[in-house]
Each structure stands twice: as C-alpha cells, then as structure tokens.
Amino acid sequence: MDLFDHHREALVLSEAPLAARMRPRQLDDFIGQDHIVGPGRLLRRAIAADQLSSVIFYGPPGTGKTTLAQIIANSTQAHFIAINAVLAGVKQIREAITEAQDRRGQHGQRTILFVDEVHRFNKAQQDALLPWVENGTIVLIGATTENPYFEVNKALVSRSRLFQLRSLEASDLEQAIDRALGDKYLGYGELAVAMEPEARAHLVNVANGDARALLNALELAVETTEPDSSGQRLITLDVAEESIQQRAVLYDKEGDAHFDTISAFIKSVRGSDPDAALYWLARMVYSGEDPRFIFRRLIILASEDIGLADPQAVGVVTACATAFDRIGMPEGQYPLAQATLYLANTAKSNSTLGYFEALKAVEQERAEDIPNALKDNNRDAKSFGHGANYKYPHAYRDHWVAQQYLPNGLQGQAFYQPSNQGWEKDLATKVDQRREAQIAALAEGDMAVPEVLSFGPVNARAERWIQRAVSQSGERLGELRDRLFTLAQCQRHHRVLDAKAGSGLLTWEAVRQVPEGQVYVWVETAAEQKQLEQQAMDLPELMRPIVLSQLEPHPKQSARTQTKSDQLEAHDTERSEALTFERIIGRNVLAGEDEMADSLSQLIQRLSRNGRLILVESVPSQSQRLYKWMDERWLSKRLLKQLKQAEESLYRSEPSLSWDVEALRSPLETAGLAVTVTVEPTVSQVQISQNLIDYWFGERDHSYATRIGAMVPQDDVSKVRQAFETKLMGRQVELRGAIAWVVANKA
Q: What whole-number distance in Å separates Cα of residue 81 and Cα of residue 472?
C-alpha cells in the first residue's frame, strides 16, 4: 500500500457511517457471540493459531459476521480477498482463484476468500468455488443471513464448518453505545453527548439485537441534535424515537425466518398455548406475511392436530377465512385472531394420521384381495358370487354388525387410534368395543379366517426399544454414557470438563458433541494420560482434549488436588481470567475422597453461570458386602460373624465409604445450585475369577484385604480368601449396589 492508498483509506473511513467506523479490528474488541469466540472456543483458537479452515458464518443482520471476517483478515498471515456475492460473478471468482494459485506457487502463501452474502451466488457460481475449496487453494469464509443448509451448495457446506451467530443481548448493545460515545477518533468521544436513560433503553430495545441498526440510529440522533449553550447534545426519548421508530424484525418470506416463525406459530397452537400463538401471529402479520398463507396452515392444523376431537374446528377456521376474504385488512385481523384462539384452546387429536399408516400398508404390503362380501354384486353376483354373505348394517340393531371389511392379511390391524380428548373421547370406547366384537366373531368362525390374527397397532417405538435392549445387553457403561449426555444437553460451543477421564468413556463423546468448544480432562495416572494422548493423536490438533495431570504432587497434597488447584490456575494466568465450563461431567469422581465437600467445592468454582454439573457416583454404603456370598459351611460361625462386623464397620467409619445422599446434596445447595440427586439400585451378574480375587485380596493400599486386616487377624483373612478360591471360583453371583445421579444447575 502506497501513501495515496493509505490516505484514500483514511478518508473513506472518516466519511463512513458510524457503524462502519466502530467495527472492531481485533478479537478482544469484538462484542457478543461468546459461544463461538469466547475463551476456549474452537474459532478463537483457530484464529489465534492462524489455522482457520473453511467456515460459513450464519446469523441475522448486525451480529458481526462481516466484522469477524475483517478481524481474521487483520490477524492472519494469509492473503485476504473479499468479494460480495451480490456484485461479483464467475469472472471475479476466477480472478481470485488465479491470484490464490500464483501466491501459493510463488510464495507458498495461503489465500482466504471472504464471500459476503454467499447465498446470493447461484449454483454455477458456487460450483465454481467448490474444487478450489476442496484442494485447499483457497480457504472460504462465507457470510449469510439464510440457512446455509437450504441456500448454499450442499457440497460446499459439507466442506465448511458452520458457526451460527445470535442476535446481540441488551448488554452487548449497551456496550456498543458506550464505545461509540467514548471513542475520540472514530466515535463521538470529542463531543459532549448525554443520553436520557429512557432514550438509551429505547434504542437498545427497538434495535432488536442488531448492532448496525443501533449505531445507525445513534448516529442519526447525535448528528441531528443541536448542542445547547454549553455545547452538550442531549439525546432525549423523543429524539431516540424519531431516530428508530420501528423494530427491525428479521422476516424474509422466502427465507429461514419465514419457516421458523410459522413453525413456532403452528407448534404453539398445537401445544394449546393461546398467548404464544397470538404472539407469533402478531409477529408474522407485523412483518407483512400473507394472512391467506396463515389461514391455509390453520386449516391443515384443524384436521391434522384437532380432527375428531372437535369436528367443528375445520368449519370455524374455514368460516373465518371466508370472512377475511370479504372484509380484508386491517379488520381481517379479527377473524384471523379468532381462528387462532379457537384452535389453540380446543381439544387436540392427531388420529387422522391413521390414514398415513394405512397408506404405508398399501405401499409396503402385497396387494390383498377385496373380501368377497364387499365386492360389487350388480355385475358378477351370479357368475362369481360377488357380494354374497354381505350383512346390511341398517338391518341390525344400532345399524351395525360385526363382519369383515379389511383384506384377510390385514384383519385385526388398527390404523385409527381415537384420542381421549373432546368429542373423540366418547367415540374411543365405541370403536374399541366394535373391534373386540369383530375379533370375537372372527375367532368363533363367523368370518373368514384371516392369514394373521392380531389386534392393536404395531408399536414401532416399543419394537425399537426391544431391539436396542437386546443388541446392547451387558453394555451398561455405554448406556450410562448416553444417559449422562442426555442429561448434560451439551451444545456445540460448550467448554466441557471431564472431571475423571479414566479410560476416556466420557471424553470422546464430549469431543464429538462440542466440536466448536473445548474439552478438558483430569486424569490420575501416567498410564491414563498416555492412553488419552495417544488416542487424541488421530484428531486434528484444535480438536484434541487438553489433558491435565499432576503426577508429582506436593507431599501434603493429593495428585487430584494439585491438578484442580494448580494446572487450571496456570491456564487462568495465561488467559488473564478464570477458566470456567458450561458442563462438568464425571463418573465416580468422588470415589475414595475423604473430603467430599472440598472436591465438590473445586468443581463448583469452575462452573460457568447457567452451567450444569452432572455426576454419576457409585454409592459405597449401598454396595455389595462380600461376606453375604459366604456360607456357614465354608467358614466358622465366629469368623463369619467377625467378617460381617469388620466389613459393616468399614462402611460406617471410613468417610470415603460411609457417605450418603445428603453428603452429595448439601455442599451443592449451600453453594446456591439447584440440585437433583436420584439414587438407583443396580443388580448385575459377575463371575468370580482369579483376577477379581487377586484384586480384592492384594496387598495394595485400600484393598478389601488391607481394610479388613486392621480388624481381622491375617490368618483369618487368608481363610476368607481360600473360601473364595475353592468355593466361589468360576461361579456367577449377583452383584448389588446403587448409583447416584447428580444434576446441579448454577444460576
């Protein structure tokens, strides 16, 4: 860049709108979006390490998509090219590719291509980018307000990492105002600008999470307000209202917001929430949605989600639609609201979906012949006997008679399932009684014998559950892991701490679930650390969990305490702030802990605001007693009694074995967390093996033999071991215990 270029850029910047002038130039100045650029997030680490791969930023206007791209441009060693999809065509793409190839071949320099409004590219333009993204000639940064899964080439999306930006919070917009008013070079720091609290609140509220709209309104307010005699410009509520009069609502009739909003509306009506239904209705009408489109969706809902629970629903909404066509807007909003409220408040039933079950049967089953009695008897009654034995319902009491109507292969199949709501509630009993009568008549020979005799719908959900239970028999650890992560509800950007990684049962699932976040793990042994680090080598460097281990603790501290207090504090020092986690997970984190409250306190300190702690802990006091497997014929009564007393004493006296549920709950509630502790008994089969006996009766610290050896003579301990080896070796026994599920939420 020469002197003239620099002068031109400075001139353009000085004359640019406030929103452009205040655009952050570095990541530390970026406002909001902590879920993707906060400390420990994947994108922040990638930018800092200059290891960015192709990404697409997706979110509403004014949330920082273009700003992030410019920050990347300012911090990367790669060559940066920016184009706008509205203005650029295939020619500009080819020029950018040619330049990228030259820089890669001559200087070994990467090229980052930023495409603003990437969804505006047509298919040919997007296809022109694809091979160069694929072979690494360019690193693509796309920005779009539309859902990339619908608006961007699927192949391009699959080769990029997607980051969704959210509308800014009120606190973020407040920060943007303060920066603009305080910056002496790019903002209004040299002017004496004062704002009434009501004016500030109005700008923040009506901007609706859009920083660009906020700064544009602030600029208009400041520039159009004359200073008073003291030189001060006072922004009053009236000035603020003139500067931004109408809330900016993101709503594109062909875009993502359109489909998301109508989805929220329909789900609110289906969920019988009239308040939410009216809100989403108002939001659509305010944004210019066609009321006829809304009525069409309501008519569909009246049949799909209400049906025979209220047969009048279709008539009501259709009448309201007709009324709207006659009177138009704005008065037409009354019948629109009436139809919405009626459907939201009436009984619900989706029994009409039975039709699609019947349709599936038609598609999947072989064609079944029509029962002879149901065939047309006007043409072939004499030759083929069509219509013979048909029972005319009106000739019977209540105008109904049990006879076969379904094909033989489908006899007993129930497609229609009446709900227990509204008008259909009374119908359900009648339908069931008639089905039962048909089955009874069939069984007694009144009807033709069908190929399959079954009654009731196929419960696909139950069938899937049974199949899964069979296929995972014995895989309790996998079930435990899946349940823990269901409770955790991790989001892709979360920071997760696996508080006792062990073999990595929870670690690798955490890595899969938080690809834009970061996983930290605590390990207790060198072997665990080595195993996890070796497994992590298969992952890209930015995706690897950070393993924390202190293998040489201070003499007065345990390895676990050193790990929690020292290593994370070292990370804090590097980042100039405490590292916290949205989710802390662990299995048997408290096993062997004498000071449980201290261990829980260390975890609580590392939990983020609105974070969640999920632990699954074996409850030692409810675990299997080994003496219960002994028989009086194998040991003397004296020794069996002594063994029982010693073992029960262990579970009463040792803090690491005697704790109860209250010991889990109390420290968490004292710290202000909302806590749920659920204790569940467990029963499993275990085969007594030599390895298991060696584990129980080994000479290591805290083994079963070492613990009871303090109360039982060593000779007697040897006799107990001998009984295990001679009487129980190879046998399967029932292992009973209990596990505690701890879920604690921090406000």
A: 52
**Which residue intervals of 303-346 are DSSP H helices?**
313-327, 333-345
- Which CATH architecture fits 256-347? Up-down Bundle (1.20)
Instruction: Verify cis geometry, omega within 30 degrees of 0, for the bond prior to 713.
Output: no
Q: CA–CA separation, 321 vs 219, rounded Å?
A: 45
Query: Distance between alpha carbon 433 and the CA centroid of its chain, in Å?
Result: 44
Angle at 437 between CA 434 and CA 441, to 5 degrees: 140
* Residue 371 near residue 448 (C-beta atoms within 8 A): yes
Whose CA is closest to 240, among 264, 210, 259, 219?
219
The DSSP code sequence of 23-89 is: --SSGGG--S-HHHHSTT-HHHHHHHTT----EEEE--TTSSHHHHHHHHHHH-SSEEEEEETTT--
Eight-state DSSP code of residue 623: S
Distance between CA 209 and CA 59 in Å, rounded? 11
User: Token pair 């699954």 is at which residue?
Assistant: 616
**Fold matches, 170-243 and 256-347:** no
Give me 629's structure tokens.
């497997």
**Backbone phi, psi, residue 385, to 5°:** 75, 20
> For residue 604, how many other CB atoms are within 10 A of its CB?
19
* Superfamily of domain 352-443, CATH level 4: DNA polymerase III clamp loader subunits, C-terminal domain (1.10.3710.10)
- Picking from 154, 70, 148, the residue whose alpha carbon sits closest to that of residue 112 is 70
How far, CA to CA in Å, does 597 sit from each of 600, 656, 664, 665, 745? 5, 11, 8, 10, 17
Q: What is the largest CA-CA distance in the chain?
A: 110
Q: Which residues pair with 79 in a beta bridge?
A: 111
What length is written for the chain? 747
Domain range list for the chain = 33-164, 170-243, 256-347, 352-443
Query: Is 98 or 463 the better-scoring residue by pLDDT?
Result: 98
Instruction: Record the tokens describing residue 135, joined without a space.
Output: 């072979």
Is 67 a residue whose pLDDT tops 80? yes
Query: Residue 703 CB: number of other CB atoms within 10 A?
Result: 15
Q: Which of 64, 59, 62, 172 is nearest to 119 (CA)?
A: 59
**For domain 170-243, which architecture applies?**
Orthogonal Bundle (1.10)
3-class secondary-structure state, position 699: coil
**What gap in Å lies between CA 415 and CA 457, rounded to an integer?**
7
Beta bridge partners of 617: 740
Question: Which of the following CATH numbers is that of domain 33-164: 1.20.1280.260, 3.40.50.300, 1.10.8.640, 3.60.21.10?
Answer: 3.40.50.300
d(CA 523, CA 698): 24
CA 135 centroid distance within chain: 32
* Terminal-residue alpha carbon distance, the chain: 51
Instruction: Compare 510 and 417 and report the one with higher pLDDT.
Output: 510
CB 523 within 8 A of CB 502: yes
Model confidence over 378-404: pLDDT tens digits? 655 454 556 666 777 777 677 776 666
How many angstroms separate the CA atoms of 21 and 498, rounded? 43
Sign of CA dihedral 679, 620, 527, 686: negative
DSSP 224-268: TSPP-TTSEEEE-HHHHHHH--S------TTSHHHHHHHHHHHHH
Instruction: Tell me if the pTM is above 0.85.
Output: no
Q: 676 pLDDT exceeds 60?
A: yes
Q: CA separation (Å) from 456 to 304, 366, 413, 417, 673? A: 22, 20, 6, 9, 47
In the prediction, which pLDDT does 444 show?
41
Q: Give the count of beta carbons closer than 10 Å to the beta carbon of residue 633.
A: 7
